[in-house]
Design brief:
CATH architecture of the largest domain: 3-Layer(aba) Sandwich
Radius of gyration: 24 Å
Largest sheet: 8 strands, mixed
Distance between the termini: 48 Å
Strand content: 15-25%
């Protein structure tokens, strides 16, 4: 018989750490305990549950079928315990707990580092986690409550669904080329002129790629995307080295160096949003929204 009375939150934290790091050594480092203590507690939990949560070999650690089944409820339990502690602190006027924020690589409508510095100054007890991803993935993570909120960039024809939404601003893309590119120094170019260039762009299916694809499709123009890159810093480096051109939001490119930018007639438009879940936000998320003068129920 399983004795649930012996299950402890610390044991759940250890299981989650091993599952995420795929290593007992790295999990122990993350949890600030010696590995033998972590291994002992997980083994104890496995005995109480009546089954192994991990397959261990000298080369790898992976979840068993039982571990896969155990993990979602373990996460929910830890989240609930953390939410309960944060709610109690909030009742006494103190904001603590965790804030999970998603962000696209090209966020530009807000100065996120300054915003987070301000937030941390006001609420030093909050642990902030940043997760970089594509807009569609971030929206889905907010819907699932894996993220508290997320900063997005989407084509003007698309709006996030199933979440609370605040629009920060709209922006048009500009062409980004190498400094020695023949177009560098142009005051403005037509979208059709770019069609003859080889492009470096985001992968198909991403919101960043869709913005440019929609603009070229609307103009009835074909283009060649030779290099697909998920990381914007690598994309800019490839452009800088003359491997192609790209288009990025005009509010984002001032921070780039070693490239030339050119306004484009008929360029795609991007809308930047902040989104958060429909359920009542955790105290830390509510405090973050207040910092932006946004009510949680917007």
């Amino acid at each position: 018989m399983i004795n649930h009375g012996w299950m402890e939150l610390q044991q759940l934290r250890y299981v989650l750490a091993v599952a995420e790091t795929k290593s007992f050594t790295r999990a122990a480092e993350r949890c600030h305990v010696v590995q033998s203590a972590l291994s002992h507690q997980i083994a104890r939990l496995e005995r109480e549950l009546g089954g192994r949560l991990f397959d261990r070999t000298s080369r790898r650690v992976r979840l068993t079928a039982a571990g896969e089944a155990f993990l979602p409820a373990a996460r929910q339990c830890l989240d609930a315990a953390e939410r309960a502690a944060a709610d109690v602190a909030a009742a006494f006027g103190e904001v603590r707990g965790r804030l999970d924020v998603g962000v696209i690589p090209t966020v530009a409508a807000v100065d996120l580092p300054s915003l987070l510095k301000n937030f941390r100054t006001r609420h030093p007890q909050v642990r902030v986690s940043l997760r970089v991803g594509s807009s569609p993935d971030l929206v889905e993570q907010v819907r699932r409550a894996d993220l508290d909120l997320a900063f997005l960039g989407l084509p003007a024809t698309t709006e996030p669904k199933g979440v609370r939404v605040h629009e920060f601003g709209r922006d048009r893309h500009v062409a980004v080329v190498a400094p020695d590119h023949p177009l560098a120094g142009s005051e403005e170019i037509e979208l059709s002129r770019l069609a003859s260039e080889v492009f470096v762009d985001f992968p198909i299916g991403s919101a960043g790629r869709a913005q440019a694809d929609l603009a070229f499709d609307a103009a009835g123009i074909d283009r060649q995307v030779a290099l697909e890159v998920g990381a914007v810093d690598l994309m800019v480096e490839l452009v800088r080295r003359g491997l192609g051109v790209t288009m990025l939001p005009s509010t984002f490119v001032p921070g780039l160096s070693g490239v030339a930018t050119i306004p484009v007639t008929g360029a795609p438009q991007r809308v930047e949003y902040l989104v958060w879940g429909r359920a009542e936000p955790r105290p830390a998320a509510a405090a973050f929204l207040r910092l932006l003068d946004l009510p949680a129920e917007s």
